[in-house]
Amino acid sequence: MSDACRELRAALGAVALGRADPAEEIALRAHLDGCAECRAELRELTSVAAALALGDPSRDMGGPTQPPLALEKRVLGRLADERDARRARTRRRVAVVAATATAIAAALVAFVLVMPDSSPSGTRVVFASHAGVSAAATLHSRSAGTEVAFHVSGLDQGDSYWLWLTGADGQRIGAGTFRGTGTPTDLVMTAAIPLADARRIWVTDDHDKVVLDERLLAPPA
């Protein structure tokens, strides 16, 4: 029996008696379309419920009887508790899926796969915005190293900045220095490091404080 069968099994009796929650019944009907085992059990329960409706309590030796009110309350309370537990499990599964999707999206933003530059478009890097500064770069493999077409906005006017590439050995290689203009700026600079060896691209200010930073994944072997 699958987890879905176990979660919905308690609702079969309520459906057979015509007392299921509408939303719960919709979910159960959708499950029944693909589960022969649960369909068979629902048929049996429906037959039992129909037979109970045809029974004549007056023919019982003890005369007409009614179940205790407390029993009905306990049964309905148990059904409500199971329904609430199923809904809580569903909410937890949705939360886990959402958290996983968010983590994957963050990883895709944080890392850019560096591949050999076989297309005119080059390797595109979009930096995470920080303190009003946003930037993007396109990296091209050149005989002299890695050419960086750099677009940036939000830098302080007149301040000095440095663009760096870092290899797997952790050594940073300067691609060039420039001044902030207070307006969107396009620059082309070159760092003496092969594109395939680059693992990080980043910008620092004249106090060597990191302003922009993105990691680069190595190309697959």
Task: Give a quick set of tags describing it.
single chain, 221 residues, alpha+beta, Immunoglobulin-like, 2 domains, five-stranded mixed sheet, four-stranded antiparallel sheet, 4 helices, 9 strands, 39% helix, rod-shaped
Describe this structure in words.
- This protein is of the alpha+beta class and 221 residues long.
- It folds into 2 domains: 3-57 and 68-110, no CATH class; 114-217, Immunoglobulin-like (Sandwich), CATH 2.60.40.
- The protein has 4 helices and 9 strands, in the order H-H-H-H-E-E-E-E-E-E-E-E-E.
- Helix 1 crosses helix 2, helix 1 packs parallel to helix 3 and helix 1 runs antiparallel to helix 4 (69-110).
- Mean pLDDT is 79; it is low at 109-118.
| Count of distinct strands | 9
Main sheet characteristics: 5 strands, mixed
Shape: rod-shaped
> In terms of structural class, how would the helical and strand content be classed?
alpha+beta
Total of helices: 4
Q: Within the largest sheet, what's the order of strands? A: 1-9-8-5-6
- Count of the domains: 2
CATH class of the largest domain: Mainly Beta
Parts with pLDDT < 50 across at least 5 consecutive residues: 109-118
Mean pLDDT: 79
Could you say what the CATH architecture of the largest domain is?
Answer: Sandwich
Report the helical percentage. Answer: 25-40%
**Rg, Cα atoms, Å:** 33 Å
CATH topology of the largest domain: Immunoglobulin-like
Q: Give the N-to-C terminal Cα separation.
A: 44 Å
Report the portion of residues in β strands.
Answer: 25-35%
Order of helices and strands: HHHHEEEEEEEEE
